[in-house]
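User: Quick sanity check before I run a bigger batch. Here is a single chain. Can you write out its predicted 3D structure?
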Amino acid sequence: MKNIKCRLFSIRKSIPKNIKILVVSKNQDISSIEKVYQTGHIDFGENYIQEMIPKYEKLPKNIRWHMIGRIQSNKLKYIVPFIHLIHSVQKIKHLKIINKEAIKYNRVINCLLQIKICNEKNKSGINNKEVHDILENNNYKNMKNVKVIGLMGMSSFHGSIKKIRHEFDYLNKIYNESKNRYKYSVLSMGMSRDYPIAIECGSTLIRLGTFFFGKRKKTIE
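Assistant: Done. Predicted structure follows.
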């Protein structure tokens, strides 16, 4: 726990105060998450709904859970009652499902659109035109229980610093060009390997897992 406290203190001291830190708890057990929570941190991100739900059930209810993985449409209904932010929306279909389920709980679910900013096959996302297609869609405009509040993107895993900076600059450009039009407030980019570059390029939210936990575990308790 002391090591985690030191890491949190160190990174908070080294980054601007307006940057939010999301601790990626994918594949981490309950005990590991509790150690971070005990430092006062409450924002945690998960890739899989089936892994998030048991953690939500066992851990304190003031934790703010973020869905950062690929969306499984048939499982969205299970997280709508408690999710804080969904980072990886890529289709109007996703927003329709979220809105429909959120109505049942009288909630407004905040979401980010995931933009593809690199050429790696394992990175998904939409392009700038598709962003506008979704947000200008009358179906979305009529939704009262879901709100797109920004954009998210992931850089090349094996890219050079120059390439990663170019990718983040591109996403920042898309963000700023329509920030006022769509009332964006979140630009989520940057992970353990590249967050300093992301911050320089305008990120407001960084996602850190390996930075805190080291090599991820394969099972959860």
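The chain has a mean pLDDT of 92.

User: Great, the batch can go ahead then.
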